[in-house]
Amino acid sequence: MYLRLNEKQYNRLENILCPGGSWLFPDNLGGMLARKISRSMGWPVAPGDVVAVMEGWGREILSHLAGNISTAYKGQAGPTDYSRLWTAYSLYYLPANFPKVLRVLLGLLRGGVLPKKLKLLDIGTGPGTVSLAVLYFYDMISLVAGKEGLSVEITLLDRFREHLDFALANIKSWQVLQQISFPVKVNPVVCGCLEKESDQLRKLLNTGGYNLVVPSHVINEYELHDTTSALDVVQFALEMTADNGSLVIIEPATEGISRRIARLHWQLKSAGLATAFAPCAYPWKKYPGKQRRCACWSHACEPWHKPASVQVLEKYGACSKNDVDFNYLILRKDGLNRFKAHRNPGKYAREGYVKLLHGYKYMGEKVNIVGVATNVYRRSELMIIDICDGTCGTHNYCYIEARGNCWSPANDMLRSVRHGDFIDLRGVGVAPGARGSHYTLKLSGDTKAVVYR
Ligand SMILES: C[S@@+](CC[C@H](N)C(=O)[O-])C[C@H]1O[C@@H](n2cnc3c(N)ncnc32)[C@H](O)[C@@H]1O
Ligand SMILES: [Zn+2]
Ligand SMILES: [Zn+2]
Predict the structure, then answer these.
(1) DSSP state, 159?
(2) What InterPro entries does UniProt report for this protein, alphabetically (predicted)?
(3) Nearest protein Cα to ligand 1, atom 14
(4) Which of 382, 379, 431 lies closest to 403 in space, CA to CA?
């Protein structure tokens, strides 16, 4: 019921989605959106790619759109008015949010919990960012691994009928343009406010019937009347999530939101409602982590090949977006996390893997470990990677130390590690702790390292 790819297929998939380690936005989707916007606004539709179409609108329109972006989320409290923003949103925020969804899906796939038969609830659909990215991701899977057994069922939920109509049209066109050949079913849309009409919404939805529920950029101060209702909205989303499904929260990259997400996780975990699949299972002893320097547990920052439409809007004055910066949290009800799901406990034990919690017992010896990079510090020749596998309960339990001046293949491999990456080390030395950690993992010439996104 979950998708499995072999290593070769993974590599092909990653090369398509994220060539050279930078996320790619499909040009044909940009072109499709630009042409759609041209037609609905009565603007000229120049032949050619997205740049040609947009430049055909002229300086005045483009400066106006760029201005919409700069002022979209400034100095306002309460729900954003999208009636005049969708055009700019679709060419700027949609392409910026698209890779966030891809990255999360890749994490679910790597963790072994991405369903073959997907039932998606796209909460706060907007122009359909999440659904478009999901269709693209599954289409690329069908490309590298075949479409056998794949299917996607989509349910859209938003406060505004116009958003749902726009998203629906985008999804239909995207399906045709991509020539998607596995079964796709789009259910009747669900329109209503998550804060004020949740009871009506419950009646329209299939409670517990969705194995992927994604509120992306919904539970923040730009959308909700009151952010204290974020917990209610997340609990609602959790109700809709199947027992073997994932609830994926994606949010902007502010520190305030990062803390709110950590707090939400803590509240749900304490109440026994859900646990984190990713970014990590149990990162900090105390939430929201005020006592720690790092407020970025749920933070991810990824390089991208800047989409053409974003480049055009930047040229006309929109703020520049040089990477894909966001917060995310994946929740599950079955206790699975990316470590449990990733490692077959019996197999890993036989292969000599130890939990990070027990690493200090092997002082002076070599061990095999897996974990996620929670922090990466680079200071000239020294690189320190905080690592966590969900067993240690504190942020700085142990870390990996690498020195640039002593070359080794593992050192090289870890050079490019980023916050949130999954690390698999074999034959790493256990040394006394420093800087507040219990112990240090030291690389040597024969340490073997593998890094996943
Ligand atoms: C920033 S857009 C996000 C669109 C898309 N998910 C993305 O990630 O690009 C937020 C969307 O959530 C919807 N929304 C915000 N608050 C809502 C609420 N209380 N109930 C239902 N929909 C809501 C808005 O109408 C808007 O379409
Ligand atoms: Zn952790
Ligand atoms: Zn961090």
Answers:
(1) S
(2) SAM-dependent_MTases_sf
(3) 124
(4) 382
Contact criterion met (CB below 8 Å) for 403 and 441: no
Q: Pull the structure tokens for residue 295.
A: 């407020």
Q: Is the CB of 193 under 6 A from ligand 1?
A: yes
List, for residues 388-405, the tens digit of each pLDDT value: 876 765 666 788 888 766
**Beta-carbon neighbour count of residue 244 at 10 Å?**
14
Q: How confident is the model over 48-65, as pLDDT tens digits?
A: 999 999 999 999 999 999
Please tell me whether residue 172 adopts helix, strand or coil conformation: helix
The ipTM assigned to this model is 0.96
- Give the pLDDT band of residue 283 (cuts 50, 70, 90): very low
| Share above pLDDT 70 across residues of the chain, in percent, rounded to a whole number | 92
- Tell me the ligand closest to 372's alpha carbon: 2
Structure tokens at 255: 């520190």
CA 195 to ligand 2 centroid distance, Å: 31
* Domains annotated on the chain, with CATH: 7-339 (3.40.50.150), 343-452 (2.40.50.140)
Phi, psi of 33 (to 5 degrees): -65, -45
The size of the chain, in residues, is 453
